[in-house]
Amino acid sequence: MKKLLIALVALTTMQITIAQENRGTFSGGFESNSQWYQDDEGLGTVAPQDQLRSNNYFTLRYSYDKFTAGIQYELFAPNPLLGYFEGFEGNGIGTYYLNFKHEGLDITGGHFYDQFGSGLIYRSWEDRQLGIDNSIRGVRINYEFTDYLVATAFTGNQRVGFEVSEGTITGLNAELDLSSALDLETGIQIGASYVNRYQASTSPDLNFPADVGAYSARADITFSKFFLGAEYVYKEQDAFVLDGFVTNNNYQDGRALLLNTGYATKGLGINATFRAVENMGFYSDREASGNAFLTNTINYVPGYTKQQDYAVSNIYVYAPQPFVSPGEGKAGEIGGQIDVYYTAKKGSTLGGKYGTKFEFNYANWSGLDATFDVTNNTYQASLLSRNEKYFEEASVAVKKRFSSNFSTIFTAVHTEYNTTIIEGSGDFLRG
Predict the structure, then answer these.
(1) pTM of the model
(2) With helix as H, strand as E and coil as C, how does 245-307 read?
(3) Among the ranges given (81-85, 104-108, 280-284, 405-409), the one the predictor scored with the smallest mean pLDDT
């Protein structure tokens, strides 16, 4: 049984577009997500006082020649859905922007979204189903110098509910397609980024880091049936935050390494990812570390594990651990996953009449090998080291069609899940 029984779930989406010659294009949309909560006598769960809750978004856009303007009004009434950031309570204008495009120039004032590289250094994004909106309110300029060289610069404050962050975010990014510039058969793309957060110091320490910068360099190579990608990020020393409080005279830097590789040919695909992360929590408000709604989060550290198709397989989902917590023995994480996809041909022994698909995944994540001084809240760690296991999973799936009306999916999953580390309580579970 669920902890809370939802008797009514309504999702309404509407889009309107009106175009008139020489007058531009006007479009709009309305989306409503509503739920009616009820008591669950079996679990003894009592519904909230406001049983009917609703998240509503009304969007208007107007485009004319080189200009586009947009605004989004949001209504959370009488309260937002359970599990959403409390900063979304009430109603008001959530986002707005004015954009100008001409040839290679692209300028936006207001709210905007973007991503540098894989997002390890910077990503602003929206997911209404999760209640996430990390847009930047400020100015963004993108310029395409040539068809192989593009640069982006921005500055602004991050959205936090209907407010914005205390810290100001500034970023620079450059992308160069060497294969196009040098007319190479092998695809080679390189990029570099810089992101800075400025938040005024409230510390008597003259060395307190009000400005914290992060740097990244990356490269992607594609040749024949192979691809290879690498990215490295370094974050300057930032104030150490413990249980929401900033400690003085104790500053730590951070770093991350990401490697991707793969091979693809007809009927076979292989993808592998490796990542090591040390102290890479990066926030527009330094005291907002570790919150569940990703508010004030500048960068993006996703969980590289398989997204299983069925609910039973998704009971224990790995949550990334890029943060430092001396009391819990955490300094970051290291690990990765590999996916193998194979399709047996129709008419073959394995494929049969309709063909057969095989999927294999293996993921493994552990903490970094580190030493901690809990009294002074300091630590020493090596980025390419491995200590306690956090998560391990192996799964195999076979998808077979026997006729036009009958097909089967066989799935087997073995999971090891360290609840003490991932959730902060419990034991190490295997299943």
Answers:
(1) 0.89
(2) EEEEEEEEEEEEEEEEEEEEECCEEEEEEEEEEECCCCECCHHHCCCCCCCCECCCCCCCCCC
(3) 81-85
